[in-house]
Design goal:
Layout: E1 6-7, H1 14-26, E2 29-32, E3 41-43, E4 51-53, E5 58-61, H2 62-67, E6 72-75, E7 86-89, H3 112-124, H4 130-166, H5 172-219, H6 228-231
Antiparallel strand pairs: 1-4, 2-5, 3-4, 6-7
Helix pairs in contact: 3-4, 4-5
Length: 239
């Protein structure tokens, strides 16, 4: 899914990587990270033409993630294969049944893919009522957005690692690549800032609404105190 997931020999063509990444997103799958050695396949180990690549990975659905939020995964050592086995340990999580509220991240607007998803979903649901079309759009954007946010954080780390590698190089190509990577990192950090700025605003609004609701509930709640002193001054009368 990324060029950095291969070490040795020629890199994969960008169109292959982008095509695979888009296919995963179109299938509604998300990458599930695992600990341990990340290059799960090796060829010609110990030789000058040795190649390592992350060919094996774990892909899950949104429903699976919700069901097994505490799941972990790791790569294992195997002397019988040139692939490393991946072990997934699922931990079932019991939910209250409350559905998560759809939240739209403003930084998604900078991505052409977001507009493509809206247009594709809207065309796919032609003939539905407007509310159903909007619900379908929100569901598809939410599914894509979760993958995007996860990959977004990964991109920042990839840029930082790449800059560390290029920092000590003095050839012209490396210096140009360093400048391009730095520019990309600044762009990502700006988006990251907008993301947390929006989250902080949503958190503040949520807290304010809870305070206001609690205030009016207490204000109009029935007082269950002792009414004996008041009733003593009310004359008993049958009409």
């Amino acid at each position: 899914m990324h060029q950095l997931e291969k070490r040795g020999r020629a890199p994969h063509p960008p169109w292959k990587i982008n095509g695979f990444r888009e296919a995963v997103a179109d299938c509604g799958l998300e990458y599930f990270p695992f600990s341990g050695h990340q290059f799960t396949w090796v060829r010609s180990r110990g030789m000058s033409n040795m190649v390592e690549e992350k060919l094996d990975r774990i892909l899950v659905t949104e429903n699976w993630l919700s069901m097994f939020e505490g799941a972990t995964a790791c790569s294992l050592v195997s002397p019988y294969s040139d692939h490393l086995p991946l072990l997934v340990t699922p931990i079932f999580t019991v939910h209250s049944g409350r559905r998560k509220r759809f939240l739209f991240d403003n930084m998604w607007l900078r991505e052409d893919k977001c507009r493509e998803i809206v247009a594709h979903t809207w065309d796919r649901t032609v003939g539905f009522d407007v509310l159903a079309q909007i619900e379908s759009c929100s569901r598809d954007i939410w599914r894509w957005g979760k993958v995007y946010n996860r990959e977004f954080a990964r991109k920042i780390e990839v840029c930082k690692s790449r800059m560390d590698l290029l920092r000590i190089r003095r050839d012209e190509d490396s210096m140009v690549e360093y400048g391009n990577t730095e520019h990309e990192l600044l762009y990502l950090l700006e988006q990251h800032h907008q993301y947390w700025k929006q989250r902080a605003k949503e958190h503040w609004e949520d807290q304010v609404s809870q305070v206001m609701m609690s205030y009016f509930q207490d204000l109009f709640a029935t007082d269950q105190g002792d009414m004996t002193d008041v009733l003593e001054y009310v004359a008993a009368r049958i009409t």
